[in-house]
Amino acid sequence: MNLRQIKAFHAVVISGSVSKAAESIGLTQPAVSKLIQNLESTIGYELFKRIKGRINPTPEARFLFHEVDNILSQMDRLDGLFNSPSEYHHKEIQIGALSGLANFLFPEILGKFSKKNINFNVNLYTHNSNIICDWISRQTLDIGLIDIQSTSPSYNSTPIPLTFLCAIPSNDALASKPILTPKDLDGKPFISLYKRHPSYGKIDRVFKKEKAVYNVVHKVLVHMPAISMVRAGMGYAFIDTINAWSYEKHLGQTNVVFKPFTPHIQEDMAIITPILRPLSQPVLDLLEIIKSSIMEIEQQYYCTDLH
To answer: Cβ-count burial of 143 within 10 angstroms (0-12 exposed, 13-18 middle, 19+ buried)?
Structure first.
């Protein structure tokens, strides 16, 4: 396996066409086809199938593409470092964040930051918490936002817990209640994050302590699809304040309401920064904007009856 094969693979997935891929990377179509054939021969399985005249990535290829895309992005950054190290270091900020943060909250945060730092470029990478922790451990990012409890000698971690609210349809009988409890939700159908996510066990333990049943019937990887499933009448869901805010403010939806819940449950959000990668003043300024923006949203959903 070599870099030319990897770049050809990346280009074909993006363009959906060998001819367009060849044009984008400055090679002939036969050359790209040969590179893909050699790559498939090396790894021992197909990466593409031709369906109705269009080349389609196999499931294995789609899985590999995300890693390849990240590697090539890092190589582009490395190229910039070699060409202009001092300028590149001081004018780019690398951030890794979960999709729930990257889709709606971070554009607002970066908008505030950019008004005072017009000469800085921000690269925002979206992935799961484990991958972001790995990137920070390798000192390739300036800032990471994760939703798991994680410690490492290679990065600093600042907890920023987020309150869980209960998302229910606006026309549900429980929508009129100011605060919900496990007894209110005993046996009700729930949409939850996947079972290995720390919040799953945390919520389940709260229900069991109150002698109620946390009845999970559907599972998702991230919060936003769970809210859409609540809107479709498929059940209830525990949603953190940032995703609740994103749904209400940016999607303009009023058919789901987010109710305070007691006992108080929090999601383990944290900001992580690399120990061996010095943080510039603009990075420190951005960290303060991130923290204050998250605290502002938390205060918006603050319920005095729970505290």
So the answer is: buried
Q: pLDDT tens across 47-82, in order?
A: 998 877 778 889 888 888 888 888 888 787 777 666
CB of 223 closer than 8 Å to CB of 240: yes
Whole-angstrom distance, CA of residue 183 vs CA of residue 210: 7
Q: Hey, what domains does the chain have and what are their CATH numbers?
A: 3-67 (1.10.10.10), 84-160+268-306 (3.40.190.10), 162-267 (3.40.190.10)
148 vs 145: CA distance, rounded Å: 9
**SS3 call for 154:** coil
Find out whether 130 and 148 touch, Cβ atoms under 8 Å.
yes
Buried/exposed code over 181-203 (b: 16+ C-beta within 10 A; e: otherwise)? bbebbeebebbbbeeebebbeeb
Taking the whole predicted model, whether its pTM rises above 0.85 is answered as: no
pLDDT at site 201: 93
Distances 243 to 226, 231, 250 between C-alpha atoms, Å: 10, 14, 10
Contact in structure between 224 and 100 (CB atoms under 8 Å): yes
Q: How far apart are CA 171 and CA 160, in angstroms?
A: 32
How many helical (H) and strand (E) elements, i.e. helices and strands, does the chain have? 12, 13
Strand segments, DSSP code E, in 110-214 are 121-126, 143-146, 155-159, 162-169, 189-193
Amino acid at site 142: D
Render pLDDT for 146-180 as a digit per residue (tens, 0 to 9).
988 788 899 999 999 899 999 999 999 999 999 99
Comparing 29-33, 75-79, 276-280, the range with the smallest average pLDDT is 75-79
